[in-house]
Each structure stands twice: as C-alpha cells, then as structure tokens.
Design goal:
mainly alpha
Amino acid sequence: MAGYKSSSSSQVSSLDKNEYNQWLHDFKELHNEANKISALNNRLKGLNNWLENRVNQLETKIPYLKVDFEHLDMIYNNSTCCSENQLIAKPCENCTLLENKVKYLIKTCARFTRGKANLEAVLGSQNCVFGRAGIGYNSFNEKKSQEVC
C-alpha cells in the first residue's frame, strides 16, 4: 500500500504541474483578453458620454429651431405669389406692392435714359468757343483762355 501511495503522489504531482501550467497559461490569456475588453469598454464609455452630451445639446436647440421654422414657414406662406400657387384666388398684398415698385422703377429708369440721351444731344450740338463746352465748364478756365488769345 505504501508503494501505491508513492507512485500515485508522483503521478499526481506531475499532473498537478501540467494542470497548473495549463491553468496559468489560460489565466494569462483570459487576463489579457479582459484587459483588452476593459480598454475597449472605457473607450466606448467615453464615446457614449460624448454622444449623450451632444444629444443633450441638440435637444436644447430643438425648441429654438422649431420657433425659427414656424416663423419662416409663416413668412413663406404669407409671401407666396398667386402665380406660383394656384390655390390662392387673389394676389397677396406683398405681390401687388412689389409689382407697383417695379413699375415705378422702370418708369424712372426710362426717364433717366431719355434725359441722358437729350443731355448728350445738347452737349454734342454746342460749338466750342474758348473752351465753353461740356459739363466741366469752369469760369476760371475762361479767363485763362481769353488771356492766351
């Protein structure tokens, strides 16, 4: 019986060493994997915190953007022209005001172009007498030109 015990203890110790080495190797692998997962988890927590802060910032902007959208939508709905939107029966006030301003500006532009043409015709028909021609007439130049003659 004593011999059995000694042979089994050497066998157990060799099995224990092999098992221990295998378990130690497995533990080191698991520990490395756990460290990798922990680092990845920390990175993802940081990203998650940043995204939560960004969501909070955007949620605070939503009411202001809704007000701006409603304001712009109201302006757009009030300023649509009857030619663009066939559902409106009468032209809007803004369109008629703008059409009147355009007609007024066209008339004044036409008057200025006619006046410019008339002015150029009058200036072109003048005779040059001692430098008294054109818009740039200066009486000081007249005295100099008379002295030269």
